[in-house]
Design goal:
Elements lengths: L9 H8 L14 H8 L4 E6 L6 H14 L4 E5 H4 L11 H20 L3 E5 L5 H10 L5 E7 L2 H7 L4 H6 L21 E4 L8 H14 L6
Parallel strand pairs: 1-3, 1-4, 2-3, 4-5
This protein binds 3'-phosphate-adenosine-5'-phosphate sulfate and adenosine-5'-diphosphate (ADP).
The site of 3'-phosphate-adenosine-5'-phosphate sulfate has 22 residues, from helix 3, helix 4 and helix 5.
């Protein structure tokens, strides 16, 4: 699929530019605060960014399971999965990745407004795109988690064989190989190797749960 099918064309471009006319906001009587009280938690977005193979999906699922066991309502938006549906018209050009992140940011905002802990797990390689998602959320409810795993670690894992294909020139524009990744400058949580080894999935999730607890997201 070519990159011309993405943000540059049709509805995507119109939405990004905000070109629709004669539209009005309709307020509903039940609001975010009411839903949060019902759920006994605060809506937020946990945005996990990092290279392919850094452990984003593993962290997202482990965190989702841990929150579920604490009777907290969470929902995972995984980049790979969303590209099977909502974002199946997008490829991996810079423009398409930007549109991918914009759409997921908007969906995540709705989930957070619904009172859920929305766990978004995408490479999201561009700082500006992540910052645009942050700007959609009320103060402090966008929690950026940087899975800071060295490229060599991600490449040695290579569970889908994509790095191998990228090194062989069979995938062009692969993040970390011949496409950029811009690490966060000011994220809320950084997960990295300690003494040369990666924290276990449950330790990674524990780091995020501790943050959510400390900031009061797990109570209303
Ligand atoms: N060119 C290229 N670069 C990076 N990744 C690629 C590419 N082509 C396919 N894939 C697969 O797509 C998954 C990343 O999708 P995302 O939506 O998270 O990417 S992005 O945020 O729009 O950059 C990514 O999944 P993860 O390995 O889970 O990160 C890959 O499986
Ligand atoms: N904390 C971890 N320690 C060891 N291996 C991990 C860890 N997290 C993920 N993995 C392994 O690394 C590979 C990539 O993980 P994945 O969650 O699919 O990454 P991503 O979603 O960033 O591409 C998988 O084989 C997974 O089992």
């Amino acid at each position: 699929m070519g990159s011309t099918t993405g943000a540059g064309a049709g509805a995507g471009a119109a939405a990004a530019a905000g070109t629709a006319n004669n539209i009005f906001w309709h307020e509903c009587p039940v609001g975010r605060a009411d839903r949060q009280r019902l759920l006994k938690q605060k809506g937020c977005v946990v945005w996990i960014t990092g290279l392919s193979g850094s452990g984003k999906s593993t962290l997202a699922c482990t965190l989702g399971r841990e929150l579920h066991s604490r009777r907290k309502l969470a929902y995972v938006l995984d980049g790979d999965n969303l590209r099977h549906g909502l974002n199946k018209d997008l490829a991996f050009s810079a423009q398409d990745r930007t549109e991918n992140i914009r759409r997921v940011g908007e969906v995540a905002k709705l989930f957070a407004d619904a009172g859920l802990i929305c766990i978004a797990s995408l490479i999201s390689p561009y700082r500006r795109d992540r910052d645009s998602c942050r700007a959609l959320l009320p103060d402090a409810s966008f929690i950026e988690v940087f899975l800071n795993m060295p490229l060599e670690v991600c490449e040695s894992r290579d569970p889908k064989g994509l790095y191998k294909l990228a090194r062989a020139g069979k995938i062009k524009g692969f993040t970390g190989i011949d496409d950029p990744y811009e690490p966060p400058l000011n994220c809320e949580i950084e997960i990295k190797q300690e003494e040369g080894s990666c924290p276990s999935p449950s330790a990674m999730a524990g780091q995020v749960v501790s943050y959510l607890e400390e900031k009061g997201f797990l109570e209303d």
